Amino acid sequence: MKRLAGDSAAGREKILLPYTSRSGIEYAENFTYVATCVTSGGSQADFGDLFATGCDCEKECFDGCICGRDQHGLAHYHPVTRRLRTSRCSYVVRECGAGCSCASDCSSRLVQHGITIPLQLYQVEGKGWAVRCASDLPEGTFVCEYAGELLSTVESRARFVEYDRKGSNFLLVLREVMGSGSASLRINIDATYYGNAARFINHSCDGGNLQIELVRIGSNPLPRVAFFTSRGVPAYSELTFAYGDIPVPNVHKAHQSSNENGETNNTAGLSHAVCKCGTPACSGWLPRDESI
Ligand SMILES: [Zn+2]
Ligand SMILES: [Zn+2]
Ligand SMILES: [Zn+2]
């Protein structure tokens, strides 16, 4: 039986993640759906919060809470709308964690609760699978985390070479530059074998309508990688972001083709994937970062 419609998340998200094939091309379930990152090989990543410290707010956190304050003393998420303040300086976003005395539905806890908006997978001519939302999304809405296997840098470099040859790559590399400016934490997430809705989000040369943020939950040293809308997005518009090295203060990211159509071109022995974003800013090729 052909799988042309169903729940892509296979019950692993709190809400359904429906997919619908319009072209009659079967949904290729060639990866394991995970709601959050796993360690290499698929076991649950330990996001534990040992020696947890946190705020002593009662029930709800407001501006002034020690968790997630920006340079103006404002909470990273607006306490009423629960949306990211996209105007803030690009610090790592902080959420309340296990050591905080506030309630689990505090406005400073979004990414840790997973996807709550009605995302859908659908097919776009020439691009393959894509992601959209069935409701309007105001600027700063949390969309989803980028889930996959957390890899060591050695392993991610080896896989990059392999994927580069195949012309398909779900490897996302981010660098969090520390305060000193000289040290950085490198985060390698591969959504090839384990992933979530984010692995289907396509690239757009104009920067798209999503922005990536690193989100640290409680005192856990390892941040999550999360997508928020960078502007208002009408219902049923494709959700996209810029894979390459567009300026994101404090964050360096690289990601390559996730195009299932696998169109590639050989230039100087290097495989380059064709970009189908269709925006006036389109360069014709998906960005690739050989430095990863
Ligand atoms: Zn608080
Ligand atoms: Zn809180
Ligand atoms: Zn807190």
TrEMBL record:
Top-level division of the source organism's lineage: Eukaryota
Is Transferase given among the entry's keywords?
yes
Q: Which UniProt keywords apply?
A: Chromosome, Metal-binding, Methyltransferase, S-adenosyl-L-methionine, Transferase, Zinc
- Any one Gene Ontology biological process term? methylation
Q: Where is the SET domain?
A: 117-244
Question: Where does the record say this protein resides?
Answer: Chromosome
Identify the InterPro entries for this entry.
Answer: H3K9_Histone-Lys_N-MTase, Post-SET_dom, Pre-SET_dom, SET_dom, SET_dom_sf
Q: Where in the numbering of this chain does the Pre-SET domain appear? A: 53-114
* GO MF term set: histone methyltransferase activity; zinc ion binding
The Post-SET domain, residue ranges: 271-287
Task: Give any Gene Ontology cellular component.
Answer: chromosome
Main location class = nucleus
Q: Output the Pfam families linked to this UniProt entry.
A: Pre-SET, SET
Protein name per the record:
Uncharacterized protein
At the highest ranks, the source species' classification is:
Eukaryota, Viridiplantae, Chlorophyta, Pyramimonadophyceae, Pyramimonadales
